[in-house]
């Protein structure tokens, strides 16, 4: 009988185990290159001696084994088709698990990066607040030096110094604060549940920073499309032809900021010609 098996052949063996007078017989059926085959049977097929046309034998320690090839048949079409589909499904499952592991690794990496950014944002917020308090303290010291001066002009200067002592610092802070808000807005559009949880935290942190800045007089200038251009609050980015009235705001390119009543960064807008 032919011991050269092909993939998906249905092979049946009888394994006889003999030790002294004790004999054990077991029958095994495998789908070749599909089922997991007993290592002992594989060893007998590979290293065993031909006992007769359909048997091989091997001696291992005190035991003698006889492996008889009972049958070697081709699978019927339906069974082979089912096995082929199962192999295909197993391949898909394996690929899915591999991709799932890769995605999980990427997600873990992203979580670590988000955690680092969160810690940095908190540290930066604390640093901003400390710097604001320090500058305010210096401004107050400056005011105290001039308390003895009583004329109206001097009092007005003191009031102005108190209101706008933070202007230089606020001007330096506006751009990174604006970038932080843009980053939060962009990240919130990503469909990732884990990331969304962190974005909620970042939004809360941003609101805290914004509230602190409002306490010191910094407010956004947020014109709307359809508003009329105001040179005290807005800066022209571009003038375009439009059916709307002259100086009507057509698009807002960037928001602005004011410190109390003073515009320190005008909103950038496109207006009608």
How would you portray this structure in words?
Helices cover 49% and strands 27% of the residues. By secondary structure, it is an alpha+beta fold. Among the domains are: 9-75, no CATH class; 167-272, Roll (Nucleotide Exchange Factor Grpe, Chain A, domain 2). Strand 3 and strand 4 (55-60) form a beta hairpin. Helix 2 runs antiparallel to helix 3, helix 2 (77-145) packs parallel to helix 5 (193-215) and helix 4 (167-187) runs antiparallel to helix 5. The termini are far apart. The relative contact order is 0.08. The model has no long low-confidence stretch (mean pLDDT 87).
Whole-number radius of gyration?
41 Å
Distance between the termini: 96 Å
> Uncertain regions: pLDDT < 50 for 5+ in a row?
none
Structural class: alpha+beta
Strand arrangement, major sheet: 2-1-5-4-3
Mean of all residue-level pLDDT scores = 87
- Beta-strand content: 25-35%
CATH architecture tag of the domain at 167-272: Roll
- What is the element string, with H for helices and E for strands? EEHEEEHHHHEEEEEE
User: Could you give me the name of the CATH homologous superfamily of the domain at 167-272?
Assistant: Head domain of nucleotide exchange factor GrpE
Helix content: 40-55%
Number of strands: 11
- Silhouette: elongated
- Largest pleated sheet: 5 strands, antiparallel
CATH class of the domain at 167-272: Mainly Beta
CATH topology of the domain at 167-272: Nucleotide Exchange Factor Grpe, Chain A, domain 2
Count of alpha and pi helical runs? 5
Subcellular location: Cytoplasm
Family: Belongs to the GrpE family.
Subunit structure: Homodimer.
Coiled coil: 107-156
């Amino acid at each position: 009988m032919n011991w050269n098996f092909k993939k998906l052949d249905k092979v049946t063996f009888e394994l006889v185990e003999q030790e002294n007078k004790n004999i054990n017989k077991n029958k095994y059926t495998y789908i070749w290159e599909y089922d997991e085959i007993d290592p002992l049977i594989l060893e007998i097929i590979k290293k065993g001696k031909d006992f007769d046309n359909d048997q091989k034998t091997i001696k291992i320690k005190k035991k003698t084994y006889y492996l008889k090839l009972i049958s070697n048949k081709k699978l019927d079409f339906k069974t082979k088709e089912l096995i082929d589909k199962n192999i295909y499904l197993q391949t898909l499952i394996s690929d899915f698990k591999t991709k799932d592991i890769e995605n999980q690794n990427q997600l873990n990496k992203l979580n670590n990066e988000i955690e680092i950014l969160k810690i940095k944002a908190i540290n930066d917020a604390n640093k901003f607040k400390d710097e604001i308090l320090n500058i305010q303290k210096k401004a107050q010291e400056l005011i105290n030096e001039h308390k003895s001066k009583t004329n109206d002009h001097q009092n007005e200067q003191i009031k102005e110094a108190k209101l706008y002592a933070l202007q230089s610092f606020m001007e330096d802070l506006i751009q990174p604060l604006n970038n932080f808000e843009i980053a939060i807005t962009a990240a919130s559009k990503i469909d990732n549940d884990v990331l969304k949880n962190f974005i909620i935290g970042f939004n809360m942190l941003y609101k805290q920073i914004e509230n602190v800045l409002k306490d010191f007089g910094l407010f956004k200038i947020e014109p709307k499309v359809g508003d009329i251009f105001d040179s005290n609050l807005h800066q022209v980015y571009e003038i375009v032809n439009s059916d709307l009235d002259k100086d009507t705001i057509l698009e807002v390119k960037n928001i602005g900021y004011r410190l109390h009543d003073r515009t320190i960064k005008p909103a950038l807008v496109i207006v009608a010609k």
